[in-house]
Amino acid sequence: MERRNLSADDAGAAQKLRYDAGAAAGSEAPLAHLSFEALDADYNNTQLRLTLWPGGGERLLALAGPHLGPVRWIV
Element (H or E) spanning 9, and its range? Predict the structure, then answer.
């Protein structure tokens, strides 16, 4: 499978949309963002994180190896 990355412009636009939506979130309309991202090129160190708005608090949920295994749950 070919790995494809967003261009810097597209990644910046996606990040701006997420932060703008987070800034607009409130108790009547909260927002959650779940991310699963590799911290290295070989996917040996991958993190599952949850960010909740309002407030923007971020929480590390799990660490995983390549292809989602093994998983070490933090919560």
Answer: helix 8-24
Cβ proximity of 46 and 63 under 8 Å: yes
CA 65 to chain centre: 16
Q: What's the predicted TM-score (pTM) here?
A: 0.76
Neighbours of 61 (CB within 10 A): 15
Q: What is the pLDDT of residues 26-35, one digit of tens each?
A: 999 999 999 9
Per DSSP, what are the bridge partners of residue 21?
A: none
Extended beta strands in the chain, E state: 31-38, 46-53, 57-64, 71-73
Q: Please write the tens of the pLDDT for every residue from 3-20.
A: 677 889 998 999 999 989
